[in-house]
Design goal:
162 residues, alpha+beta
Length: 162
């Protein structure tokens, strides 16, 4: 399990985004957004174009992937992994539609105060993060609970094309 070990953590408060970094996983102060001390709503854009980190400062790729200050992350939750429907290579049109809904919902959830809690990294080098919202909710759990916007991962099927 991702969080099954105890390590010291460093918490960085940057106003709107607080980063909890676990030493040894490559996350650094560059991940936190520099914003005013007063939390305000903001718009996190959807990512566009190729897969180049230098072009992606802070944006949402899809319902379970994004970038924060040039660092790519993959959404997880306090209870485990999160799998949102694909939008780049969906198996069917229903999956693409669900993926677009999940992407917009994650974008909305992250439009206010949130914290990225780093749980490690995956085999593709993405930081595994829990997105904790200002009201204490877990964005990954919200997507899973909100009618088909995501499912727990690992999983054995694609419910969006069933």
């Amino acid at each position: 399990m991702l969080g099954a070990f105890a390590v010291p953590i460093a918490i960085q408060s940057t106003g709107l985004v607080n980063i909890v970094a676990i030493p040894g996983f490559g996350i650094s102060a560059q991940l936190g957004a520099q914003v005013a001390d007063r939390p305000v709503a903001r718009h996190i854009p959807l990512c566009s174009g190729g897969n180049r980190a230098e072009r992606r400062l802070t944006c949402i790729v899809d319902g379970d992937t994004g970038w924060e200050n040039g660092v790519k992350w993959r959404l997880t939750s306090r209870s485990g992994g999160v799998d949102a429907p694909e939008i780049s290579k969906p198996e069917c049109q229903a999956e693409r539609t669900a993926g677009e809904r999940a992407t917009r919902r994650l974008q909305t959830l992250m439009g206010g105060d949130y914290e990225l809690v780093v749980e490690g990294s995956d085999r593709y080098g993405r930081q595994l993060v829990v997105v904790e919202l200002a009201d204490g909710r877990d964005a990954g759990a919200v997507l899973i609970d909100e009618g088909g916007l995501a499912q727990e991962w690992p999983n054995s099927r694609n419910p969006w094309c069933s």
